Amino acid sequence: MTEVNLTIIPRKPFLGYIKRKKRWSCIVAHRRAGKTVACVMDLVIRAIGATKKEPRYAYIAPTYGQAKDVAWAYLKEYTQNIPGMKVSESELSVVFPHNGARIRLYGAENYDRLRGLYLDGAVIDEAGDQDPRAFPEVIRPALSDRGGWCSFIGTPKGRNAFHEIYKRAMESDDWFAGKMTASQTGLIAQSELDDARRMMTPEQYEQEYECSFEAAVIGAYYGKDMAQAENDGRITKISHDRNADVFCSWDLGIGDSMALWFGQAVGKEIHWLEYYENSGFGLDHYVDYIKARPFAVHNHFLPHDAKARELQTGKDRITFLRGRGLTCEIVPQHSVDDGINAVRMGFPQMWFNSDGENMARGLDCLRMYRAEYDDKRGVLKTRPSHGWESHGADSFRYGVMGLAINPPVKPRKRYVGPSVL
Question: Cα 134 from chain centroid?
Answer without folding.
Answer: 8
